[in-house]
Structures are given as structure tokens and as C-alpha cells.
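fwd from M.: "can u put these together and see what the complex looks like"

so here's what she sent:
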Amino acid sequence: MKKKIAKIMLGTMFLTGILSGCGGNAKESSGSDNSGNKYDLTLYSINTTDADFGDWLKNVEDATGLKINVIAAPTDSDTRQQKITTILSTGDSSVDILEINDEMSASFKNSGWLDGLNDTVMTEDIRGEFAKGYLDQMITDKQGNIIGVPGYAGYLAFWVNQKILDEAGIDKLDTKEDFKKYMLAVSKDGRYGYGGSWEKTYVFNEIAQFVNMFGGDYFDWTRPENKEAIQFLYDMVQNKQTPIDQIADKYEQMNPKANDGKYGCWFMWGLGTDYEKAGMLGQDKIHMAMVPSMTDDGKRAIFTDSWSYVLNTASKNKDAAIKFLKYMASEGGMEASYKAFDRYPARKDVAEKVVPDTDPAKEMYSRYASECNVQGRPMLPQTMEFITDMGTIYQSCMKGEISVDEFCKKAQELVNKYK
Amino acid sequence: MNTNNKIKKYIPVILIIPIVVIRGFTTIYPIVITFINSLYNIKVLSGIHEFIGFKNYIDVFKDDKIISSIKFTVIFVVVSMLFHVLLGTVLALILNMKFRGRRFLRTIVLIPWAMPAVVIGMAAKWGFNNDYGLINDLIRRFVPDFQFNWLINTGSARGAVISMDLWKDLPFFAILILSGLQFISEDVYEAAKVDGANSVQIFFKITLPLIIKNILTLCIPFTLWRLTSFDLVYAMTSGGPGEDTSLIAYRIAMESFTNLNIGYASTLAIMLFVLMALFSWVNIRFMNKYND
């Protein structure tokens, strides 16, 4: 009898073990976390490493009355994108709200993994306050549904080192000629006129930026303007005005070099937090400047970007999620993000109210908006594949393994392949 | 046959059912599904899902990225394993010598092995940086004007990846060989010395034959680990410059999790699986022959 009982107990324990193992992740997102705390929705956030994240979360919870469970997104861009892709593509309902960048937005917006927000959050009364070009190009799907709430308005700003400018005796970088003069004057003794982050996925920003500045079209590599832009970059490498070393660099390698005075100018997202931390941000040190015009007609081009809050279609807490998103699209939500994370408000009316005139970004951002052709970056559904392939042939070109003509030919082949 | 005997006959079957079920779910099922997926063109981001037979298997050999990955994987595995065997044996011999601090040395050589490959990769990315890296800093102490960025040229980037792989796993390989060395009786060495054998003769006539089986056995998992190595490259070079350090396992991860080309990634995974099975079979056959 004892043996029988023991057998039944063992069998039960085994079955329980298997079943609990199989069903361990099937819990719904609304409920409780490992510590038993109850929450209303789960947010997959990229900002958890920010020192002010706790204050921001408290602000959001107080304002919305929601108890929010936060999952920290990986800081590495590849890992982060893979995790988010896996969550959305598998219909994982354990995360309700995610923050996605433009690359992910371009990939996911037509996938059916994200809920449209036209009628609930991005309603007509506030839609006009966001940059229209950005909304249309980056976060609106084929059916016209807006799938995200931009968390901020960012520009791929042009940064200069004022000390180096002064040393070279150059007071403005307004035209292509000014830019060339600057390159020539400051590129020596281990210092370069221009610096960048040319790791194969990061360099996409700069290729597209230069193509735009030269009046080209990233999706048409038969245009002479595109070739001129690539030739210009290639010549800078050959003339040692920009280092070939940077093909291994991401922003975390580029920014210390900028802080150390190795670069005269560069393009970078954000409001210069890394320079501020190093005590290098300021009008007499490193600061934003107007993008030079590389064309004869004086036109200027700049890219805008954002990380958007999106609603997972598989979410089981949609009411709470929409409440959260409404707050993030409101003045209060944007002000909280600006104060905690230095995120420039995506809504024009909010930026006007919330950002003090003493913030140097305010003047520059409003100049960018009024003086430049502001666009979202050119992306295709197979975003990362396209970006990586373009980055790979660009690196080959800059290393002299293929000519500029060959690069343009291959680039057009890639556009045809992925478009 | 009475009832008791009948029950006894089925007990082994009943007992192995859980293992078969678990293996079925965790190994057989994924392999079958991966093979089925490999016959489809599945591009999740483009919404494509169509049966294409063995087209993926043909396309693999026309894809420059894959050719480059295969080339580097072969170089990585062969060079790394060669140095594992050579340097691992030397290190094991050193660790087997009698000297003060031997126990301490045996302990600290394992530190790199205990570190996660991703951490090593991230540190190495900075370590090999021309401006801020400790490698060039060290070299500049002897050659002050030395300037070289290891991770931007094909050869040096590949060399850097292989050297980091060796730095991490070589000590573990050596420690495992050391365990084999410790089984060799001191009496054998003493007898050889009495017979007039020198150190080189002792190594080739006594030590090596007695540990060769150990080394060959170790080569199976270490080679398979190299074939599936992904994390070091992921953190250190992201497969760059271009695709020059993109190992095949890294390419599979990129195709499946970043590009969401599930069919193509499955094809690569199946091919890698077949290659690994083949390698293991050849190696086991070789060892059996050696035993005979």
C-alpha cells in the first residue's frame, strides 16, 4: 500500500513539474509580479538606466492612477530590437506598451502587431501639433492608422567644437566651401575635421544625411547627387579629414572622441547629454549648429526621429494602456519626459510652453524646423537588413575595396531588392 | 506469465516515457519544425510565407554574406582549435610542473573561462580600440607612435576575435588536459629517465600517446562550441567590418531574430546541424579506430 501511495505521489509530482514548467510563462500581464505586487499594465522601457527614471514613473503613476510594471529593455541596440521583435511577432501579451524607434516602426507598422491609435490617443485635436512629415512617413501604416505616440522630437543635429572653430579662425559653417575650408584647416596631428560613427548599422544615418544635404534621393542611386555625396565622404577619408577607424565605432565610441577634441564637427542625435556629462557642452565648447548647405540653391536638410510608445495588439490591458498613452501624448506626459530624460517635447504647443527660452536646444530646434527640409529617415520594411547591407558596402567603399561607382550600382541593387 | 511479470516487463518502458516525451518536445520537435520551415520562404516583416522546396538550400551558396560567414567560420574553428591543442597542451604541461604557487596559478588561469563571452566581447571592443584600448596602450610603451585599429581590417579583426576566443577558453582546455596528465604515473617517467630518455623523447614517446585520446575527446565539444559560437562576435564586432567576422551561428541569429527571415535562418540551422553531426560521427569513428 505504501509503495502504491509513493508511486502515485511521485507520478503526481512529475506531472506537476512538467505542467508547471510548460505553463510557467503563460501568466497574464495584469496581475502581479514576482514580488506579488499588483499592477495594471506592463511597460517595456528604454529609460530605466536614467537616474531620474524613478521620478518619471512616480509622476506617470500619480497622474494616471495606474500601477505600472516596468521591464528594462536591453541597452544594446541589436539585442533590444531582437527582444521586441520576438515579443510582438509571437503575440506575447506579457508586455502592453513598448517603446520602439524608427527602424522598428518601419518594420512593424504594417505587420498587424500594433494597434492603431487614431480614435483613442492620436485624435485629430492633437495630431496637428506633431510634425506632420514624421507622423506620415514613420508611424502611419498603409491603412492610415497612426500606431505610436512620439515620445519626443529629435534631430540628427549638426554639432561643432567651438574651440576648434576659433582656433581655425572660422566663424561659420554655412556652405560647402566653408565646410571644406574647415576640414582643411583642422585636420592634422590626430585631429579630424569631421567625425562619425560608421559601424555598419549606425552609418546609415550619415549616408542618408549627406545624400539629403547634396540634394539626392536615398532610394535612387542613379542620381548624380547621391554619387557626389559618397564621393565627398570618400575624399574626406582619403584626405584624412575623417578617420577610417570610425567604421568600428558606434556612438559610445564616437562621443568620447568628440569630447576629447578629436573631431571638429559631427552629426548626433539628442541634446548632448554625453557632452554635458563630460563638462563639454556649451556655446564656447561643444554645441549644436545649423546644418551646412551643400547645394548651390542654399537648401538645408535634416532628419528627425523619435522613440514612440506603441500598444501591443496582444495586450490584455488595453484600457489601462490607452490611459497611459493619452497621458504620454498630453502636456503633462511630455513635460515629465522633458524634465526626467531631457526629451524635447514632440508637440509644438507643449515645447513652446514647457521648454524654457534659456534651453539652447529650443532656439536651434526651432531654427531646424523653420530653415531645414525636415524628413523622417528613409526606411523600408526589411529595415535592419537593408541598413546593414548598405552599411557593409559603404564600409567597403570607404576602405577602397570597391569604387564609388560600384557602391552606387550595388546600392541601387539593394534598393530594388528591398523596396 | 503471471500479472506481476507482465507489469515488470512494462516498467522500463513506462520509466523511459518521460525522457522520450521531454526529448521529443525539446529536441526532435524543434528539429522537424526547423526542417519544415527551411522549405519555406518565410519573411515575417514582409508577410511572405510560401513553399519553395529546397530553393533556400541552393540560395545559400549564392549568397555572398553566407559564403563570407562560412569562410570565417572555417578559419575560426581550424585556427582556434589548432591553438587550443598546441597552446593548451603547453599550458597543461606548465601547470603540471612542480613549482611554488602552482595551485594559485591553476586557479587564476580559469578566470577568463568563468566570464560570460558577451562581457569579454564588449570589453574587447574597447580593448582593441586604437585611441582608448589597452592593447595599443601596451604596444605604445615600446613603440610610441604605434597607430592601428584592429577591428577595421579583415585580417586583424579576425585575428582579434580568434585571440579573444583563445583567451577565454584555452585555460579550460588546458585544465582538462591537465586532468589527463595527472593520471600518468611518476614511475613511468622515472623509468624512462633511467633508460636515458631526454625531455623531448619523454614527451613524444610517453606523455603525448597517453593524453592523445584525452585531447581528441576534448576536441569534439570544443569544436562544436566554436561552430555554434555567436556571443563573442555579437558583442565585439557585430560581424564587422562588413561581414568579415560574421560567424555562421551569428548569421543564423541575425537572419532569424533581427531580419525575421525564418525560412532562410532554418535552412542555415539545418545545414549547421548536419555539419556538426557529421563532424561528431567522423571524430567518434576516428577515436574508435584509434582505440582498436
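replying to her w this: The longest strand of chain A covers residues 263-268.
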